[in-house]
Design a protein that fits this description.
Elements (H helix, E strand, L loop, with lengths): L6 H6 L2 H9 L5 H19 L2 E4 L1 H5 L15 E6 L27 H8 L2 E7 L11 E2 L3 E2 L16 H8 L5 E6 L5 H7 L2 E4 L13 H4 L3 E6 L2 H11 L17 H4 L8 E4 L2 E2 L2 E2 L2 H16 L3 E4 L6 H26 L12 H10 L4 H21 L5 E5 L22 H11 L4 H6 L3 E8 L5 E8 L4 H14 L18
Parallel strand pairs: 2-3, 9-12, 9-13
Antiparallel strand pairs: 1-3, 4-5, 6-8, 7-8, 7-14, 10-11, 13-15, 14-15
Amino acid sequence: MTLAMSWDEWTQHDGTALAGRVRSGELTPRELASQAASAVAKVDPALCGVVELFDDVIADPARDGADLDGPFAGLPFLMKDLGPTLKGRLQEMGSLMMRGNRAAADTFLTAKMRKAGLNLIGRTTTPEFGVCSSAENPAVYVTRNPWNTDYTTCGSSAAGSAAMVAAGAVPIAHATDGGGSIRIPAGVNGNIGLKVSRGVFSLSPHLSDLTGLVSIQGCQSRTVRDTAGFVDACRGPAPGEFMPFWTSPEPYAAMIARDPGRLRIALSHTWGDYRATPHIAAELERVGRFLEGLGHQVDYALPAIDYREAFAAQTACYISNFAVVIGNMLAARGLERPPAELIEPINIRIWEHGRDFSFADRARMQAVFNTTARGFGAFFEDWDIILTPITALPTPKVGTTEYLTISDNPSVLDWFGNLWRNFAFTPLANLCGIPAISLPLATNEHGLPLGIQAIGKQADDGLLLQLAAQIERAIGGKWNDGKTPAVHVTRN
């Protein structure tokens, strides 16, 4: 196949630049789709990040309704196999039980993506129902980190998307975040990952921000302007939302052209019982000093909240939410309990533990959500941003089952507690509904990417993007020190 450009040229363009070349007539959406499909074929055998490519929309990018006059002009875009549905397409959620599950309709956000000009060309891997820390079950698939395939992509639910963006297959891909699932894989794969505030992307029609509670949609990208453009094009409420949706006084794509003012930035590498390794803590401090050099005020501080209580409430939320999800799937199939041969062990235990959660249990959980969110809100009266590492520990190797839903841990609470020891710094932003972004600014003990997370107050998504763009300009656009992964489309 003759490609429209070399692989070096392909990866030197972000999605915004590729869309610009389509609008100028230099490239066609079909050429972009063909190049992306060839890129997946080049890197995916080593990574296993793509479940399926849709040959029909690769051949005809407008076939499923992508508006080729939209801002992304037919840019190829991979969808995580969980969350927004695509009419007539399979959505199997990383689960043997969901094999053959086909969506009857587009969800609201899917329609927004198509209107934005994104050509949804395929599905990427996810852990079963997006529950655990990476897409890693040998009975389904094992997704590997492009920087070193001995290591995981982490997750949960953006594992394959993160690998494909990092490996240069596509410049931007879909992801979701219920406790860090955009930011964690962005952090360990060297991408940019923004979790927006609650009230930006719609979960319609299946959920609302009230019923979804901690779940957020979004993307993985390699440039700040691609992330900003995605939010600008895809944000907004569907009819009948329970909660108000945030608006921005101007598009984020315009806002990021200006540096933010002098920010008050709080560093923290210890949250309650959970703390980063000395190496990771030192990387955070190094980035803090760099931001000081950009003119910002930087010091150590953290919100005065009950961290044990907050993590217990977050755990209760996950258990009760996923128990309902699994229970609904069982009811739709006339089953009384999860089949052990089709559902992974920890997910069965989550269902067992959470199926009898009472309204009173949920009310107590939400009371803690309230006090925690108020504590963060009070903190942001004095500070603009909290800076943390994305993970407290180095990236796990493939086969580290203690973080996976194929674990044989008999205790769901202990299993979640073990997750928090590594992924402590991301979930409370979901609990509070506040924005947070992972930026590829550091490395862990093994030399793999380590994201640095900036957290802001509710609806300050634009400020996080402004800071990210200021950093991007300061480093000449060279995230990850300008390095590329070992598995990358530019490599043989």
